[in-house]
Amino acid sequence: MMRASNFMPDSLICGVLLQCLCKNLCLNDAIKVLEDMMETGLTPANDVFADAVNVFCKLGKLDDAMKFLEDKHILETSACNVLLEGCCSAGKFLMAKDLLVKMSESDVADCNSWNILIRWLCENSRIRVGFEILGRMVVSSSLPDCATYSALVIGNCKISNYRNALDLFHHIRAKSWVLDPTSYSELSKAFA
Prior knowledge:
single chain; mainly alpha; Serine Threonine Protein Phosphatase 5, Tetratricopeptide repeat; 2 domains; 11 helices; signal; TPR-like_helical_dom_sf; Pentatricopeptide repeat-containing protein; PPR_rpt
């Protein structure tokens, strides 16, 4: 309709339209607006790509989300992190791990990217693999933060390794960091 009237809105208007379409899970319409924007030389904001990827994930179309990012040559941290979360939520660890490797190689993985995968592994009692990913995180020059340690506390509690969980808790306290509420809850269950 906008094209028929020779009216092309600016990036801001398109962004609001895209947010609305994504909120209502209108994936095909959102992709069409994104493609129209890019064809006319408008640069979508980074959060728009993240919103679109989130819709793919909510609709269970993880492979399509990956293809979308690859086809559009989108290597943007927040959009990739949304896909990482979607892969983890769907239990697709290998897909998430492969995406994280690509992100790391392309220098778009941030601390949160690593934490998403580590947290999922720890919540699913796979702390040994979580520590392997933590090792890769450190080698890639991303430093663990309080979210990383919160995940490790949860992982240790899940496998009933409360001594290590408590040691991590003391380490976190020494840095004046704060665990997230879930980590506190898991730790307090151990000593209740």
